[in-house]
User: What shape does this take?
Amino acid sequence: MGENYDVDLAVIGSGGAAMSAAIAASQAGRSVVLIERGVLGGTCVNIGCVPSKTLLAAGGARHAALTNPFAGAPTSAGPVDLGALVAQKDALIEHLREAKYADVAAAYGFEVRPGQATFVDMDTLAVDGEVLRARAYLVATGSAPAVPDVGGLGSVDWLTSTTAMELTELPESLVVVGGGYVGMEQAQLFAHLGARVSVVGRLAPRAEPELAQGLREVFADDGITVVEEHATAVATDVGPSGQGVVVSTASGAQVRGARLLVATGRVARTDGLDLAAAGVDVDERGFVVVDETQRTTNPRVYAAGDVSGAPQYVYVAAAGGRVAALNALADGGSAPAARVDYIGLPAVVFTRPQLASAGLTEEEALANGHECDCRVLDLSDVPRALVQHDTRGAVKLVADATTGKVLGVHALAEGAGEIMLAATYAIKAGMTVDELADTWAPYLTMAESLRIVAGLFRNQMPTSCCA
Assistant: This one.
């Protein structure tokens, strides 16, 4: 570290990308400081993955009791105590924040400094006005819920996915604007807890069409009304049950509920940083522009995670943070720069059943120049689904028609997310459908569906459940 630097790497943020970068820098023997203006831990642990999934698990447990398919083992479920569930969620977050962030920082010996980071110029940062000079900087400030351009939104008390998970009383009814992964999870979460839920927006817009249709049927079974149109206006609605909201759509349809939750995507969180002073460009959506090495338009400043426009998964943020730290602190030489490898990237929407994917969709494969061959396996042909008495969903495998290589795997199934690790391995290893069909798969697991769907490329005749 040169004598003009206070630290080798200054990281703005404390979420997945920031922690991964700090750990990588510390392991390399470099000094690092994390700067956090809010609560330690970033989006995932505080307001994203962890709280939503634990509340989804609670809602799923209740819904499973209500929809139990085993008549000989009766179950029941009553009204929920949302306040108790939220308190349990908050206790889990506090534990993880301490164990996985504060304790990890202490173990690696890097400082977490509270305060607002602001760039003074191309080379200098200030934290609450105190100058901090680093050899390199990493912007890892994450994202925030987007505010859509919907008329009248400012006139109602609307919820985001963050504030919705702070409610202590279950609303009688809820309108969710947005049919992406956040909207779908939040809609089903509140429906399974007992609220009457409507969704305005296209459901699962990026999913394979066969699976999106399956999810529509699941939502219908759950009593969730889906209006696949754009919301155009929001207004206060005074009805017999009290004051609520009414959402109007492009066709003139009106959807009513006691509360409104808006889940129409996320935007980069860069306020207060003064990126312009550092010569750091953002794109037309406000995300920080980076190259394959995570470097911004200022060669001393890197960015990673949601703020860089990367796929919004904590594991992608962590991978980007590590790559950024390695490249920012490299001593030069002939070694190639580190890069994030997105081949076989998995994704999971934690609905019930889960909607999960790895690799390319059929549309993406065609756009990339592949001649595609696809097979779709209904869960009624998966032994695990049969013994669970839940055959809702399907598994789709996308392959290159010339080479037979697996390009993508997509599933709507209970435990679909667990299938995707094996799918990712298969895609990254360049396995063919024949190789996948000939690979061992434990019987009566949902992951066995990978072997079965691969076998459909050879023979689409019915098979024995064990053959």
Notes: The chain has a mean pLDDT of 95.
